Amino acid sequence: MIPVTKPYLPPHADYTAYTRDIWERGWLTNNGPLVQQLESSLRSYLDLPYVQLLNNGTIALQIALKALDIQGEVITTPFSYVATTSSIVWEGCKPIFVDIDAATLNIDASKIEAAITPRTQAILATHVYGNPCDVEAIAAIAAKHHLKVIYDAAHAFGTRYKGQSLFGYGHVSTASFHATKLFHTIEGGAVITRDTDVAAKMALLRNFGHTSPYTFNGAGINGKSSEFHAAMGLLVLKDMQAILDKRKAITQQYDTHLAGTAATRPQVFDEEHTDYNHAYYPIILPSEEVLLEVMAHLEVNNILSRRYFYPSLNTVNYVEPSSCPISEDICTRVLCLPMYHLLAPEEIDNICKLVLEKLG
Ligand SMILES: *Cc1c(COP(=O)(O)O)cnc(C)c1O
């Protein structure tokens, strides 16, 4: 069976060596040496001043909204994983959906201003599939209207825009290091900012608001990672270049088979300035009917694909109904094909052959 994704696993012996050390120290969590080492390695790798490791990417979104003191309305994208919307609602804010750009599938920056009201406090956009949002247009709108910008950068590890990590844009970027993501710590995430005050606030929030063992500054939550998660991250980070190179090669092989067919691809934003991470391989099919046929045909041949994203988030039952025709249309037709480090060239050939059989 070919799954749609498989976590990257470093050599087992290397992980065992780390766990042996953890056993000897008896220090399992609460900002242990491996968590500190991974944070420091990530800061160097990303060339960013503040990278705080967390237990998942959803807590990262919640801590970002809390640290920036966002209340009221948050302009967001309907085309993302559900955590982007549910975090806004969980924090007591109201998501206002702005439709996506049909080419890049990211929030359409040219439609943001029309959605701003006196209650708007932030823009929370997703770099979908690791493809950059129009970060400069969004920064200009935010500056003009005094809004904060948070990027759900769960897919963005390894993407660089204009020479720097995509995590460096916005007031805060949030990352997910879940096992299915390009870089992972089994479960995990991070908040990233360039702002010293916001970084200090987020450090408090992730550790119950502790300023010392018996003093607190504000209500916090438990966002801590552990030594076991950090050990996995240190090993995966070591192999990052090989992981990114492989993703690119897989993409090129898919493209060779599928270019010029009825399966189209999202466009990389500002390709000249983007060093893309090839995190996923989504295709857009002519109709939902064709999508369901392709999916079923792959499945009877023991290949799993995934409707990612589906449904359009402006249609979930806990948000006020609104219309985002482009996102709603794309959600019915977009399918992610298998993409993981150990996917073999013959497997890609076979997947494409099966897809093409249903495209006619
Ligand atoms: C994976 C993901 C999340 C959630 O991250 P977790 O680490 O699973 O909590 C949020 N947003 C997007 C776009 C994601 O893909």
Order of helices and strands: HHEHEHEEHEEEEEHEEHHEEHHEH
Task: List the ions, cofactors and other small molecules found in this model.
Answer: pyridoxal-5'-phosphate
- Radius of gyration, whole Å: 21 Å
Task: Give the class from helix and strand content and strand pairing.
Answer: alpha/beta
What is the general shape?
globular
Low-confidence stretches: none
Distance between the termini: 25 Å
Extended strand count: 14
* Discrete helix count: 11
Which strand order does the major sheet show? 1-9-8-5-4-2-3
Largest sheet: 7 strands, mixed
Could you report the average pLDDT, rounded to the nearest whole number? 98
Beta-strand fraction estimate: 15-25%
Q: How much helix, percentage-wise, in residues?
A: 25-40%
Give a verbal description of the structure:
By secondary structure, the chain is an alpha/beta fold. The chain is built from 11 helices and 14 strands. The strands form 4 sheets. It has a 7-stranded mixed sheet with strand order 1-9-8-5-4-2-3, with helices on both faces. Strands 7-6-12 form a 3-stranded antiparallel sheet, with no helix packed on it. A two-stranded antiparallel ribbon has the order 10-11. Strand 4, helix 5 (135-145) and strand 5 form a beta-alpha-beta unit. It is globular, with a radius of gyration of 21 Å. The two termini are 25 Å apart. The model has no long low-confidence stretch (mean pLDDT 98).
